Amino acid sequence: MAKTKELSKDTRNKIVDLHQAGKTESAIGKQLGVKKSTVGAIIRKWKTYKTTDNLPRSGAPCKISPRGVKMITRTVSKNPRTTRGDLVNDLQRAGTKVTKATISNTLRRQGLKSCSARRVPLLKPVHVRARLKFAREHLDDPEEDWENVIWSDETKIELFGKNSTCCVWRRKNAELHPKNTIPTVKHGGGNIMLWGCLSAKGPGRLIRVKERMNWAMCREILSKNLLPSARALKMKRGWVFQHDNEPKHTTRATKEWLRKKHFKVLEWPSQSPDLNPIENLWRELKIRVAQRQSQNISALEEICMEEWAKLPATVYKNLVVTYRKRLTSVIANKGYITKY
């Protein structure tokens, strides 16, 4: 039987109006060109529900029983890497035959969806304990203390490659149109290494590291750029310097040089990029640089410097002002990596 066309809402409302005016179902059907049975069904629905709108339909019953839903939900909660094929087999052994699509839809209704696993630094128990210790010790530090810190880090920016990502609006089957693609070359087409620093007051210096980044190069960068950055940012007396625990930063020579220069260094937990606000700034910088689509290394360096200088002052301020939230997140996540 062919499917009949659904009546418009106006027509359904007219049927009810004519019924209330005292007309019979037959008369209404003839006037509007609608079957008498359809008129009767709409009038009965209006009398019961006081509406002519479409009501929610029950739909097809779920193939997976409530007990089966609990079973697969419990399975993926214990082991998020369980595949849909594994769950299909589990249910089949329990006497229920379903498809992978049914598994996906069922878990989605439970608030679970399949996502790519995030890549995060490897945290050993010693790292987790150190992160928790750092967060708890500094949780109640006043905001002014964080504003008196110069944060530093290095990053690599590729000419072409995974750093050059963007979203495009395209039609179906137009994914390979030149306007909708990003060109890549082997090994990223070259890259540059940058060192930079910041405080709540704004950006410090950003420089390109052209030689191998060892302890000698690290000391040279700090000697030429750290103190000038602190002066340009007008840091208060007793300002604190932060850098991570990479070997070049923790060698005896580097530590001795910092001590002789009377730089106060923030004790830092290893494997904690999410605790360093400059990581957020690197991400913003890479997005801006990728949008410029530089074609060679020289242009890439120039664009990095331009975009670094153009980052709004509010960005730096907000990254530091909200620092307590980072510490709270570390504690809430029991020392493991946070969303920052």
How would you explain this protein's 3D organization?
InterPro entries: Homeodomain-like_sf, HTH_SB, RNaseH_sf, Tc1-like_DDE_dom, Transpos_IS630-like, Transposase_5, Transposase_Tc1-like, WH-like_DNA-bd_sf. GO terms for molecular function: DNA binding. Pfam families: DDE_3, HTH_SB, HTH_Tnp_Tc3_2. This is Transposase. The chain has 15 helices and 5 strands. Strand 2 and strand 3 form a beta hairpin. It is elongated and about 100 Å long. Helix 7 packs across helix 15 and helix 12 packs across helix 13. The mean pLDDT is 87. The protein has 3 domains: 41 residues; 44 residues; 191 residues, Nucleotidyltransferase, domain 5. With 340 residues, it is of the alpha/beta class.
CATH fold group of the largest domain: Nucleotidyltransferase, domain 5
CATH architecture of the largest domain: 2-Layer Sandwich
Shape: elongated
Q: What is the strand content?
A: 5-15%
Unreliable sequence segments? none
Tell me the layout of helices and strands.
Elements: H1 9-20, H2 25-32, H3 36-49, H4 66-78, H5 84-93, H6 100-109, H7 125-138, H8 143-147, E1 149-158, E2 191-199, E3 202-209, H9 215-232, E4 240-242, H10 247-250, H11 252-260, E5 264-265, H12 278-292, H13 297-310, H14 313-321, H15 323-332
Helix pairs in contact: 1-2, 1-3, 2-3, 7-15, 12-13
Give a quick set of tags describing it:
single chain; 340 residues; alpha/beta; Nucleotidyltransferase, domain 5; 3 domains; 5-stranded mixed beta sheet; 5 strands; elongated; HTH_SB; RNaseH_sf; Transposase_5; DNA binding
